[in-house]
Amino acid sequence: MAREQRVPASIETEQALLGAILLGSSADSAASVADEALPMIEPALFYQPQHQIILKAIRAVWARGHGVDSALVLDELEAMGKAGEVGGATYLARLGSSVPSIGNWRGYLHNLREQALRRRYDELLLMARAHNIEGQDTQRDKALAELEAVRAEAAAMIEGTEGRQGRASVVVLADVQTQETRWLWQPYIPLDCITILEGDPKTGKTWAALAIAAAITRGFPLPGEDGKPVERMPGNVLYLTAEDSLSMTLRPRLEKGNADLRRVHVLEGKIEGGKTVVPVTMQDLDVLAQALEQYKPVLMVIDPLAAFLGPNVNSNRFEQVRPVLAGITRLAEVYGCAVLLIRHLSKGAKDRAIYKGQGSIDFTAAARSVLMVGKDPNDPTKRVMVHNLCNVAKEGPAQSFVITDEGKLEWAGVSEVTGDELVAPVVVDAEERGSRAEAKEFLLKNLADGRQLATAMEDARRAHDIADRTLKRARKDLNVQVYREGRVWYWELPTYHKETATR
Questions:
Q1: Which of 126, 160, 194 delimits the end of a domain?
Q2: Phi and psi (nearest 5°) for 413?
Q3: How high does pLDDT run on average in the chain?
Q4: What does the alpha-carbon distance between residue 216 and residue 210 come to, in Å, rounded to a whole number?
Q5: Could you tell me if residue 239 is inside a domain?
Q6: Tag placement on the chain: N or C end, fewer CB within 10 Å?
Q7: What is each CA distance from 258 to 210, 213, 251, in whole angstroms?
């Protein structure tokens, strides 16, 4: 029985090369993998027919000059009528997850070239044998001549890369141009990047986002690093919302913030079939690009993130999340705007605030800044925006704010609250209730004569062996005022407690 001959091909290597092009052409790099690789790639390098179709779609997207990513390639495949044939978004996501190393794309390309040459060699060998049997000398000689050329090309390739699976791609750091971070609101929201604003429902995420948007449209100041307002030039805002009414929520809140409504543009969806408006997602990069090009916003808000991920994306799967975020990052870079993604917190118990956001940690990794909003654990009348993460500057201090009875957000100064405190579970047992009573007595006694330095109160707390968390809860119960004058922080009882303390 004849032994079945194995075709020289590696589906895994084909997937790795295509995946490297999709991911490496959306990464923050000086040169795109697509720009370098595509001029060297022929369809015959791919044995799998669906990979040849995907390559054709990648080439079409690349030719437009707007970069390459999975969302754009999927759109092109759908336009070609081939999306279902190649496996759609699920298979494109699989390509992204099959890349051991984006930087080794040359190694994958070399391996595919060698396999393609071997397939061609086998094909020509069979052709030469067939013509020899049939006695067609001219056709046989032509096939043999081409066979020798293929052999020589393969030998030269193997000799040139003997003992190596790929060549190193090296960039001399001296040739890399430094790029300064540009800011929409320093140090909280950088331009050209993604910022995440997260928190539990009804804690003030949308309030904060709209207050920021209102200030941007007028060039109104926002709190600075030292709690003082910082002015800016007026700019446009592009807003995407899936949860809030335009007439009952967005417009009233923006009006209360004195926004220039002519500068706020809400992207309701995309037009299909002439007049039908369907929801837009973060995968609709062409639609988003059109809006960014037309209205030139300095801020794009997507509220909430989960509602705009689009089809076939599991927010907990990094290989599905990464291409979507890469596309949005590229838009922010190309159009020079800040992207503010609003995200809910997960319900699971997690010790650190940085891990509380819903979905894959890749969301946090893709963002250059992460803000968290919640109710002040020390003052129920206030909310707090904490700067949990920033990898382009030092994190800014937490900023407190209040929602007035008139439905307006007002910034209320710097806060000492941390993100971990915002997400800490409230647990009060009998022993702590007794300790809290002692802490309240301590505060009434030490603040009876007026305000005291915060540092002195902390020293006194430690001397009385009062736990920091217990004292903070006591401060909240007594509504102790914590504020700063210049560079000095003070604690002070409200008037009605001063009268009790001095009796």
A1: 160
A2: 100, 175
A3: 82
A4: 10
A5: yes
A6: N
A7: 11, 10, 10
Q: Two tokens at 3? A: 């032994």
Which of these three, 387, 407, 423, is where a domain ends? Answer: 423
Q: Which helix (H) or strand (E) holds 129?
A: helix 105-134
Kindly state the helix (H) or strand (E) to which residue 475 belongs, with its residue range: helix 468-478
Of 351, 371, 477, 483, nearest in space to 416 by CA: 483
382 within 8 A of 412, measured Cβ to Cβ: yes
Confidence of residue 138 (pLDDT cuts 50, 70, 90): low
Q: Do 304 and 199 touch, CB atoms closer than 8 A? A: no
Q: Which residue has the tokens 């690093």?
A: 225
pLDDT at 121 over 80: no
d(CA 475, CA 461): 12
Q: Are 320 and 313 a contacting pair, CB within 8 Å?
A: yes
Q: Give dist(CA 325, CA 364) in Å, integer.
A: 10
> In the numeric block, which tokens belong to residue 377?
């654990």
Shared-domain flag, residues 142 and 235: no
Return the ∠ at Cα 471 (arms to 467 and 475), rounded to 5°.
175
Q: How far is CA 211 from CA 16, 26, 248, 300, in A?
A: 45, 32, 16, 14
> pLDDT-derived band of residue 27, with 50, 70 and 90 as boundaries?
very low
